[in-house]
Amino acid sequence: MAVWTATQTAAFLESSYDHPLHVLYLLVALLGLRRGEAAGLRWCDIDLDARVLQVSHQVQDHNGLTVVCPPKTESSVRVLALDSISVSALRSLRAERRRRLPAGAALTGFLFVNRCGNPMSPGYVTHAFGKLVAEADLPPIRLHDLRHGAASLSLAAGNDLKVVQVMLGHSSIVLTADTYTSVLPCLAHQAAEATANLVMKAARRTAKKVRRDSRKATRHYGTKKNRRPGSTRKSAHKIRV
């Protein structure tokens, strides 16, 4: 499984900004949609005010035709939260499409269509992606690897494995863990470091408090000369941090 870094993903999205399928690739890169799910998106599947997107079907190439069919699995039917970047891109796409419509006409149908107004062929989506990758001079990956990259970046951002499972529409968290087993050890080390840093910060705060209390005790008891007979001076507890 080959995936891009966050920097490489950003470079691709920047270089493909003016391409008609830019928003489709953006949704795959950020939400981990399958190509058939992204190509089959309809305007009725998206609520930009609520910032959600529903995956309820997909499109596939079959015998030279692009056909609408059920999602890959039951768990592939899902509702995904949209980030601010995706919402902004979808609003711009919607505004552009509305400008092409007669006044008062409702925006319906598929987000990404060919010249005949039919859903974009997944095969063409893959072909166009390959050309854009070459033009951007980025390491070659498959379009499906862009979906893998979305999951890897989500995990690297600190999102829970269960969240990534739901985002991808996997039937089992075991499948998600098995698929991204190369990513998880790195994240486990990051989590371990974060825990250690938390403890060390607490230790530093404790050490500062002890030193502060020690200074207060010194001022309170005074110098050895002015202390009452029998009084003892508290010693500061030292902590190595």
TrEMBL record:
Residues 207-241 are annotated as: Disordered. Residues 1-195 form the Tyr recombinase domain. Signal peptide: none annotated. PROSITE patterns: TYR_RECOMBINASE. One of its GO terms (molecular function) is DNA binding. GO terms for biological process: DNA integration; DNA recombination. Transmembrane segments: none annotated. Pfam families: Phage_integrase. It comes from the Bacteria. Keywords: DNA recombination. The keyword RNA-binding does not apply. The keyword Transport does not apply. This is Phage integrase family protein. It comes from Amycolatopsis saalfeldensis.
